[in-house]
Amino acid sequence: MKRPFIIDCDTGTDDAIALMAAFGCPEINVRAITSVNGNVKEEYTSANNLNLTEYLGIDVEVARGATLPFYPRGDYYGPTHGKTGLGDVVIPDAKETSFSRDMAPEVIHRIAEEENGELELLVIGPMTNIAIAISLYPQLKQQIKHIWFMGGAVAGGNVSSTAEFNIWVDPTSAKMVTESGIPMTMVGLDVTTKAVLGREDEQELRAFGSKASVLSADILEYMFKRCKDGGEDALMHDALALAAAVIPECLTCKEAFLDVECRGEYTAGHTVTDIVGRSLGKAPNASVAVELHLDVFRKWLLECIKRCGQA
């Protein structure tokens, strides 16, 4: 029996690779994809989701979501994913498919009720949609089985010295979600900055020749150029959060009390992760990834991408 998932994402380069891995992952059934503002504006993240699913021939509900975070950030979009999210990679505009009539919070609520407590969320962007859904439908706190999210860090950040991007964009929503009582696993920079793919992975995917594998190789090529120009390496932040759900052996996790700082002028977006036995003395509310077994992850990721779109 496949596990039902909704993937909530701000589809940029590594989000797209995570989606292709999810479509090729035999353990899960992607019930819907919901878009959120994050790496780029929501108008681009939602279009990327719709275009990607049609291009790959994936039949899945695609819904639009939040266009602004609750935390006032202004225009913060950077060059990491290019203007529209996929760097210099272009896929055709969707012609035959359209967005769901429901917005992301309604889709989450509806599918959670249909799945009778078995729905899991893969959250690989800011948590705005999830916070709205919980606010509108508080019963979701009992209906969602687990949240697997890419965000935060035990130590450090990539937007500031203390904050990781996904949480930094909307710490208000992240705090609401982490306080919801829903079981969750945090896959943060402590491990995702080690989840790097290389030239041999790109060549293997390109040689396989499927739409998904070639598209993934093209995205990796963009990432290599980005890194050469001083930007981020080919880091698989979001695919690693999916891996946490289906191949837990690729990570070492520890139970922790997790909270999100919202008020500090310089620290808003910091994830306070009190590993059991440290200082705060509060009961754990999350599992936190602290170590990565890279070879296990890389092998799994390439296999999933190769299965994407294959009958």
TrEMBL record:
Residues 6-298 form the Inosine/uridine-preferring nucleoside hydrolase domain. InterPro entries: I/U_nuclsd_hydro_CS, Inosine/uridine_hydrolase_dom, IUNH, Ribo_hydro-like. It comes from the Bacteria. PROSITE patterns: IUNH (PS01247). This is Nucleoside hydrolase. GO terms for biological process: purine nucleoside catabolic process. GO terms for cellular component: cytosol. It comes from Candidatus Lachnoclostridium stercorigallinarum. Keywords: Glycosidase, Hydrolase. GO terms for molecular function: purine nucleosidase activity; uridine nucleosidase activity. Gene3D superfamilies: Ribonucleoside hydrolase-like.
